[in-house]
Amino acid sequence: MKWDAQRLDEGGDQALPLEVTGRGGVVRGGGRGGLRLPPPVPIEAGTDDEAMAIEITAKTIINRVPGQSGMPFEWTVNPYRGCSHACRYCFARNTHTYLDLDSGRDFDTRIIVKVNAGALLRRELAGPRWRGESIAMGTNTDPYQRAEGRYGLMREIITALRDRANPFSILTKGTLILRDLDLITEAAGQAPVSIAVSVGSVDEPLWRSVEPGTPSPNRRLDVVRRFAERGIDVTVLMAPILPGLSDSPAELARTVSAVVDAGASSVVPVVLHLRPGAREWYHRWLSSDFPELLPQYEQLYRASHYAPKAYQRRITEQVRELAAARGLRRRPRHRAAESESAAGPETAAGQLSLL
């Protein structure tokens, strides 16, 4: 693995003890959201091994997004690489190949943990070159994946951003964000904060198959509900909408209704796109679970990573009409909502398409 030299277990101390002592002194689990520490040897790609947390010390934490990327944000923070949510379609899969790991099972099970993320961010925010621009989180892998339950890196990160009154946005499928609800509310009182939750469909059998490591759609909608109760607007990404699986009029209506009932401030539909890395892994899953759909996908995605524009427009219009019929209108009540309104729906769609 490319970052082997930065690993803490290579001659350094572990960030957390491997075993966790529970009630009555009983040792339970690995304490890393089901991830164990790797052995102190170089990590190779493609080994069929247990899921592991690879603790490293990062050299930098605020990342500049290349201008040619077309993304609606310039700066990101990613405390983790790889994602135990294991979404079959995740665009970020190919980024694991930059570390000499594979974009399939390695992406799901070799989770890079930047254990010094909070301290490093605080230092970089205080640096003379930093100008207080907004920082996007959740744009590569989910910061509230299972490992966050043990490492708690996001709480340190949000505290640092709050203390500097620095704007930020979070995109997530993780319910662990509720642990930081109080802190996010405080931060939103100091600077613009934008929260978005990804719920592509409320079809539970489909969710179990295509997003096996994520909380259920209903639990994610409860996140929306809890933030709304605090007066913080949340955008819901219907992302991704899967051709032949979650794009029927009835399924779109069911999902939009659930989103509205949860109290979302807006809904942004995003049709599946398949970049290298994700394309192969998704095709493998489709071949196993829904082989009858292969001809449809080969037709839709034969010329591009994206579905045809006419198809995307049709889905987008359907979702907008369904939302309007349910009376969904943006009513900003909080700075979290104001920053989202300023960005506009096109920006939100671009940002959230990453999930």
TrEMBL record:
<dbReference type="InterPro" id="IPR007197">
    <property type="entry name" value="rSAM"/>
</dbReference>
<keyword id="KW-0479">Metal-binding</keyword>
<keyword id="KW-0408">Iron</keyword>
<dbReference type="InterPro" id="IPR006638">
    <property type="entry name" value="Elp3/MiaA/NifB-like_rSAM"/>
</dbReference>
<dbReference type="GO" id="GO:0046872">
    <property type="term" value="F:metal ion binding"/>
</dbReference>
<dbReference type="InterPro" id="IPR040086">
    <property type="entry name" value="MJ0683-like"/>
</dbReference>
<dbReference type="Pfam" id="PF04055">
    <property type="entry name" value="Radical_SAM"/>
</dbReference>
<dbReference type="GO" id="GO:0051536">
    <property type="term" value="F:iron-sulfur cluster binding"/>
</dbReference>
<keyword id="KW-0411">Iron-sulfur</keyword>
<feature type="domain" description="Radical SAM core">
    <location>
        <begin position="69"/>
        <end position="310"/>
    </location>
</feature>
<protein>
    <submittedName>
        <fullName>DNA repair photolyase</fullName>
    </submittedName>
</protein>
<dbReference type="InterPro" id="IPR058240">
    <property type="entry name" value="rSAM_sf"/>
</dbReference>
<dbReference type="GO" id="GO:0003824">
    <property type="term" value="F:catalytic activity"/>
</dbReference>
<feature type="region of interest" description="Disordered">
    <location>
        <begin position="325"/>
        <end position="355"/>
    </location>
</feature>
